[in-house]
């Protein structure tokens, strides 16, 4: 019997107000996030975390003082186990490895070893590859696996930005939200879909990160699956947290543009597949307030995928095809071949500057 451990890689989030500061310290001392010389990073990272603690705590306070990410990721794992169950000769078990808060990679690697996995599939819950997310998690996993002495064959499902089934599952959710939004708007009211992705400092994209290009591929695939001729839509970026220039247009700028044009908005989070502080607070509270204040004639949001059955089925298909090597395998396996630019991956392309 083959025992396949599917390790869900995710960001993690604080589980109490006291955890916000150490969570932020873990995030801002990650070399994939804070790209400054190593001797400055611990000091600068801790300083930025100290500065960010209060606003972040205030955000988490709105959703009960903690991130919902762990529960939602565990539920996705259970649903995925259900979708993969019953295969002859193979048993699947899902594990969760968070990058910046518990359970960390070494906790997950220990569990995988104890379970007696004969094979590992790393499944990042980020549809698009970024050196700051999947790349960073892969590095952390490799270090943890080496430390724990877990040495079974391992594959990484590095990115799935334009997978047909993922795009169809997302499009079905957008279609349902479009229908609800249109039903509550006055006849003839113009509506635009904002596909809002987490932003990234522009320098990181210039260094070869394929994230922005992959976000655009996701949006193109979802719009194609939606099949709504003439759909007014735009890709934009939210959650800027450092003073550098981040990729744009920003979601806030798009809200202002919609207000000026008297266009209603349906906002669809496109780079993260669970609800979290940036959907529940930034999109649902902060941006909604801006939209109301500026006079946007309607503001709606598409829910995140969470454990939506069609979405989970798309992950199951991706996992099966990757294990069977039917899906073009990314050269980014084991974190050794293209950890920096990821450019030699067959399904990653750096966006032209
Ligand atoms: C330079 C800083 C950051 C980069 C680069 C970055 C990239 C990045 N992040 C996500 C997804 C999430 N990030 C989340 C929280 C979060 N991210 C940063 C900073 C950067 N992220 C901070 C400081 C925080 C903490 C919250 C805050 O201070 O406001 C989350 C939410 C986690 C939760 O709610 O539990 C997600 C999700 C992506 C996809 C990405 C790059 C592509
Ligand atoms: Fe982030
Ligand atoms: Fe890839």
UniProtKB/TrEMBL annotation:
Belongs to the ferrochelatase family. Signal peptide: none annotated. This is Ferrochelatase. It comes from Rhodovarius crocodyli. It catalyses: heme b + 2 H(+) = protoporphyrin IX + Fe(2+); Fe-coproporphyrin III + 2 H(+) = coproporphyrin III + Fe(2+). One of its GO terms (cellular component) is cytoplasm. CDD domains: Ferrochelatase_C, Ferrochelatase_N. It is found in: Cytoplasm. The gene is hemH.
């Amino acid at each position: 019997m083959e025992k396949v451990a599917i390790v869900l890689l995710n960001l993690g989030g604080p589980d109490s107000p006291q955890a916000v500061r150490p969570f932020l310290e873990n995030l801002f001392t990650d070399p994939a996030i804070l790209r400054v010389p190593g001797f400055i990073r611990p000091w600068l990272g801790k300083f930025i975390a100290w500065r960010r603690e209060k606003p972040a705590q205030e955000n988490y306070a709105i959703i009960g003082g903690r991130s919902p990410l762990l529960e939602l990721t565990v539920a996705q794992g259970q649903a995925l186990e259900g979708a993969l169950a019953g295969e002859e000769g193979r048993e699947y078990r899902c594990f969760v490895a968070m990058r910046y808060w518990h359970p960390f990679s070494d906790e997950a690697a220990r569990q995988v070893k104890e379970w007696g996995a004969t094979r590992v599939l790393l499944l990042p819950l980020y549809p698009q590859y970024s050196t700051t997310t999947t790349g960073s998690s892969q590095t952390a996993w490799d270090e943890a696996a080496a430390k724990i002495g877990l040495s079974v064959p391992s594959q990484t499902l590095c990115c799935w930005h334009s997978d047909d089934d993922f795009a169809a599952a997302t499009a079905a959710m957008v279609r349902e939200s479009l229908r609800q939004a249109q039903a509550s708007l006055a006849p003839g009211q113009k509506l635009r879909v904002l596909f809002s992705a987490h932003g990234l400092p522009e320098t990181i994209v210039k260094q070869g990160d394929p994230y922005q290009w992959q976000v655009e591929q996701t949006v193109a695939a979802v719009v194609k699956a939606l099949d709504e001729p003439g759909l007014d839509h735009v890709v934009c970026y939210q959650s800027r947290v450092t003073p550098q220039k981040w990729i744009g247009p920003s979601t806030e700028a798009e809200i202002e543009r919609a207000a000026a044009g008297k266009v209603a908005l349906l906002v669809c989070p496109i780079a993260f597949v669970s609800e979290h502080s940036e959907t529940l607070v930034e999109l649902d509270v902060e941006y909604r307030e801006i939209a109301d204040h500026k006079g946007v004639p309607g503001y709606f949001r598409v829910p995140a995928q969470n454990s939506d059955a069609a979405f989970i089925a798309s992950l199951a298909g991706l996992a099966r095809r990757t294990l069977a090597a039917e899906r073009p395998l990314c050269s980014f396996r084991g974190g050794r071949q293209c950890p920096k630019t990821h450019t030699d991956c067959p399904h990653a392309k750096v966006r032209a500057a």
